[in-house]
Amino acid sequence: MLRRFSAGGVVYKEKSGRRFWLLIQPKDTDRWQLPKGWIEEGEKTQTTALREVREETGVSGEIIGKIDKINWWFVQDGEKIYKTVTFYLVAAQKETNHFDKDEVAQIGWFLYDKAYQGLTFKSEKEVLKKGREILQNRLF
Fold first, then answer.
1. Are strands 79-95 and 104-111 parallel, antiparallel or unpaired?
2. Is the CATH code 3.50.50.60 the one for domain 2-136?
3. Over the stretch 26-39, which tens digit does the pLDDT of each residue have?
């Protein structure tokens, strides 16, 4: 059994008094999910999360806080793999519209209800929900 570790971001922006959430659709799929990717050797999870968000979406941001970790099993090339992904809440700061079109078909900004409904995986829906709760409970 192999263990794999990734990090990603629950990215939001405020526009015209409304909050939007960033999702990606990986190439050659009909899934919508949160941006995430492998942690490179010697890299901190926070650095990975910001790098992967930038590479997959063209959005640079600032980490507000850690949300949670999710885990699951899958099989790749006959090998059983246990994957752990650490997600951070990320405030969008700059959008370039340049993203990795080899991996990502499209990106989209959605209001919370549409983002929640659009996410393919239940575990990522829970991470999105926790990210929104962190923002709603902030004192500043």
1. unpaired
2. no
3. 999 999 999 999 99
